[in-house]
Amino acid sequence: MTLYNELKARGLIAQVTDEETISEMINTGKATFYIGFDPTADSLHVGHFMALSFMKRLQMAGNKPIALVGGGTGLIGDPSGRTDLRNLMTLETIQYNCDRFKEQMSKFIDFSEGKALMVNNADWLMQLNYLEFLRDVGPHFSVNRMLAAECYKNRMEKGLTFFEFNYMIMQAYDFYELFQRYGCNMQFGGDDQWSNMLAGTELIRRKLAKDSHALTITLLLNSEGNKMGKTAKGAVWLDPEKTTPFEFFQYWRNVDDADVIKCLKLLTFLPIEEITELEKLQGQELNTAKEILAYELTALIHGVEIAETAKTTARELFKSGGAADMPSVEISEADFENAAIDVLTMLVKSGLCPSKAEARRNVQQGGVEVAGEKVNDITQNYPITALKGDGLVVRRGKKNFCKVFVK
User: Fold this and answer.
1) Range of 123-127, 168-172, 203-207 with top mean pLDDT
2) What SS3 class is residue 161?
3) What string of H, E and C letters represents the secondary structure of 28-78?
4) Cα–Cα distance for residue pair 183/56, rounded to 1 Å
5) Contact predicate 311/297, CB 8 Å
6) pLDDT tens sequence across 268-310
7) Per-residue model confidence (pLDDT) at position 271
8) Are the CB atoms for 58 and 90 separated by under 8 Å?
9) pTM, whole model, 2 decimals?
10) CA atoms of 357 and 205, how far apart (whole Å)
């Protein structure tokens, strides 16, 4: 099976500009491609993992990836899929986030000996003269076509600013610059980036009379059509300081039955034949596939040794009801009233429940345990002394738990 056919078999490819040319380039290791990463936080997250996996697959086949960090476009923010205006960041914040991205990507992508590049579009975007840019690039963009693009639809409902409207042109210009500077002949990205990517291929064709190509990667969505990588506590980060390896492991261990095989195909490097065998599992047997998924992804991001520890910890927890390495949440003394905290507040503050209303339902349905004992009373209180030291193990349902403590 060729690499391109494997990518299709795994469901990774969404749209392409020229399948015959792209497949030939990828299969023979002739693709120099880029994927853009907007530095909107100080860590990459699960949403970026699809792109990182894709880059790694192609690099292993001899293709050359370029990781483009959006130090320039990050000043504007991508409106794709957004209904609100992104918060604007300072140059200092963007630079810090870019540095953190580079550190994390370097653990995943081989940047040695010219095997991959990491560049920042601030290197050229910050140098542009506005009037010269308008004269040079503006004539190649139709406002009517831009407004019809999928990436602007959500923002159009609330009012698309001219500020955001420029994002497509900036992204297209990135491809144009990378094509000239590094011979980058292909752009990859999420399927919600299709319009922006086509704008880049069109700009190169119009200005340089040369062909370039675009391929979109399937978005990581759950069976309900929502983006994966979110929990009650927020995003699932690749930074172990923001999402512990154990929490990362547990996120994948707890995916819905309907999503586990898809995630194995999209994210892991297990042979497709092995995944096909796992696809035959039904009911409780799917837990085996989920543990394999969690282990493989944790090993990719945090290393085999840490993945082994996370797997052992998870097994010990479900076997004995406690483990030293489970996720811990520190709460403040300000959360206590009269030196005690009620179970509903503790569930919310720990991130196990998003609201007191949901916490109340979970208690009333018998789905909450504290220190190994089921809680039936929604007014149950715990003294601050009980949460000192090692704290209390709080569990919601069978799969969500953490150790809650106060210093």
Assistant:
1) 203-207
2) coil
3) CCCCEEEEEECCCCCCCEHHHHHHHHHHHHHHHCCCEEEEEECCCHHHCCC
4) 19
5) no
6) 999 999 999 999 999 889 989 999 999 999 999 999 999 998 8
7) 95
8) no
9) 0.76
10) 56
